[in-house]
Design a protein that fits this description.
By secondary structure, the chain is an alpha/beta fold. It contains twelve helices and 14 strands.
Length: about 350
Amino acid sequence: MAGETKRTDSKALYDVVGIGNAIVDVISHEDEKFLDSHNLIKDSMALIDTETAVSLYNEMSPTVQSSGGSAANTMSGVASLGGKAAYIGKIRDDHLGEFFAHDVNAAGVHFEVKPASEGLPTARSMIIVTPDGSRTMNTYLGISTNLSKDDLDVHLLENAQILYCEGYIWDIETTKDTIRSAIAIAKGANRTISFTLSDSFCVSRHKDEWIDLIQGQVDILFGNEDEIKELSGYGTLTEAAQWIQGKVKVACLTLAERGSIIVTEDEIIGVGAKAVSQVIDSTGAGDLYASGFLFGYARGLDLKICGELASIAAAEIITHTGARPLVPLKSLIESEFRN
C-alpha cells in the first residue's frame, strides 16, 4: 500500500499495547420491553453492583460469552489484522479470569498480568442487544478496578509503538492514576498515545479532565459523533470537528453508516462506511475501528488508508454477535486491496 510516512519503529516489540478493564462479555438478544422493564437506558454503558449483576443475568435469554473490554477488543482486532498487540488489565484467579486470559492469548494478544488471588471477582458486562443492533451495556467492574501502577509492565509500555487507553477505565480513581502513569512511561519513551472517549456518559462525567488530558498528552483520539459533541459542547458535527482540530494530532470520529472523518490540524478526511447486508450487533464496532486505524498508523500508512482499514474491521464486527472477529481480518484486508 502506498502513502507511507516515518511513524514506524522497526525496533519496537509491539505495534500497540492496550490498557483497560478486563471484562468477560455476556451477550443476549432482547426486545425493547426488556430495557423498559429493567429501567435500562438504550445504547449506554451503566456501572452496576453485584446484586444487580446477578439479578440481570438471571433474567437474560440464552447468552453468548466472550472475553471483552473495549481495549482488549481493539488489541484482538490488531492481532487479527496481523499486527503485534499486547494488553494490560486486572483479572481474578477465578473461572471468568481464566476464561479471559485464555481467550485473549488465543486471539494472538500478549497478556501476562498475574491474576489476583484474593478480592473481588473478574469483571463482566451484561450486554443487551435489541433487534435494531443497538447494544446496552451493564457492567460490573469487579477486580478490574484494582488495576494499579504495580501491574504495569514498564518494559512493555516503553517498547510498543502506540499506547491505547480506554475511557471506561477513568471512572475509578485507582485506575485513573494507573492510566496517567502508563501515559507518562510511554511518553518518556517517545511513544504515541491514543485514547478513546468510549461513551457519551463517560464524557459527561469527565469532560473537564479529558479536555485537559487530550490537549497535553494524547496524540490520537477516537470517538463517535455524540461523544465529540458532548466533549466540545457544540451541537453539530462540523462545529465539534473544528473545535478538536489542533488539540490532538489526529481525531478519528465515527458516524455509523455514514462512515467516519479523520481530523488533523490541516484537513478533514472523509472515509466511507463499508456496506454490510445486515447489522446484527453493533457491540465492538468502535473498538474494531480503532484496531484498523492503529494497525495502519503503526505501519506509517496514509491516514485515508488507515481509515479504510478501520471501516473494514468495523464492518466485520457488526455482522455477528460478539465483539471479536469471526474471520481473520488480515484476509479481509488482503482481499479488499487486491480487488
